[in-house]
Design a protein that fits this description.
Spore Coat Polysaccharide Biosynthesis Protein SpsA, Chain A, 29% helix, globular, two-stranded antiparallel sheet, seven-stranded mixed β-sheet, 9 strands, alpha/beta, 260 residues, 2 domains
């Protein structure tokens, strides 16, 4: 199976893959919703292709309806195993046939407002730090409600930007709380943004590494990487991405698009 590099750019050895599955729990068939005139998946594809560094972009689909949608807007699509355990496995399935690519970027299909600059930042982190096998993003948390929400994954990292831990709990946890902690500069708390870049060879190994106890407890795949002793670099951006998980998320997105 050969993958043609769409939009090839000289000197680039990175590629962007959007894992997309038809089923979704909290918002059924969300990638195909189109109240804005375009599907969520098309919005994500068009936003992601604004990145400069990747040599190309494709969607890793689990269902023919998803594939047909991608073809309808002129995107490149590859079918993957419907029984794949996760989006990472779906991305790795496509990446396996890209031997000439060094860095793979995983953008979820429900991220219609992802910034191209954020994708380029992820890739740059790995280009500048050959010891790291993965990179991801974080943004400051300034709300106590957000900080205490288990759906908001937190991350702590060292002074070199290497991830120390990811958690649904409040980390770091202040022994004696003070609201001023939320306004501190530099920030005390960071929200993890679920956008990843991997070295291709590591991505292929990752799918073979057993799930760690920490990953099982927190249901956070990135903890498998840390538990196995690998380095994840964390880049800080000022604004979180607005992923779509719930009907409320989608209504807010539609409002932003229609009123811009």
């Amino acid at each position: 199976m050969a993958i043609a590099l769409a939009e090839q750019r000289t000197g680039c050895r990175s590629y962007l893959i959007i894992p997309a599955r038809l089923a979704s729990t909290r918002l059924p068939r969300k990638l195909l919703l189109r109240e804005t005139g375009q599907s969520v998946l098309q919005h994500t594809f068009e936003a992601a292709r604004r990145a400069i560094k990747p040599a190309g972009i494709c969607v890793a689909a689990d269902h023919e309806e998803i594939a047909a949608e991608v073809r309808s807007f002129g995107g490149q699509v590859r079918m993957t195993d419907p029984a794949a355990a996760s989006g990472t496995d779906r991305v790795a399935e496509v990446a396996r046939f890209m031997a000439d690519i060094d860095i793979i970027v995983n953008v979820q299909g429900d991220e219609p407002e992802i910034a191209g600059a954020a994708i380029d930042f992820l890739i740059q982190l790995l280009e500048d730090n050959p010891q790291a096998v993965m990179s991801t993003l974080a943004t400051p948390i300034r709300s106590r409600d957000r900080l205490q929400d288990p759906a908001c994954v937190k991350v702590v990292f060292d002074t070199s930007g290497r991830a120390l831990y990811f958690s649904r709990a409040v980390i770091p946890h202040a022994r004696d709380w003070d609201d001023r902690f939320l306004a501190a500069d530099p920030p005390n708390f960071y929200q993890h943004i679920g956008l990843y870049a991997y070295r291709r060879d590591f991505l292929l190994r990752l799918t073979e590494i057993p799930r760690s106890n920490l990953e099982k407890l927190e249901s956070l795949e990135q903890l498998r990487v840390l538990s196995a002793g690998y380095t994840i670099l964390v880049g800080v951006v000022n604004e979180p991405t607005n992923g779509i998980d719930t009907p409320e998320d989608y209504r807010a997105f539609v409002s932003r698009v229609l009123n811009c």
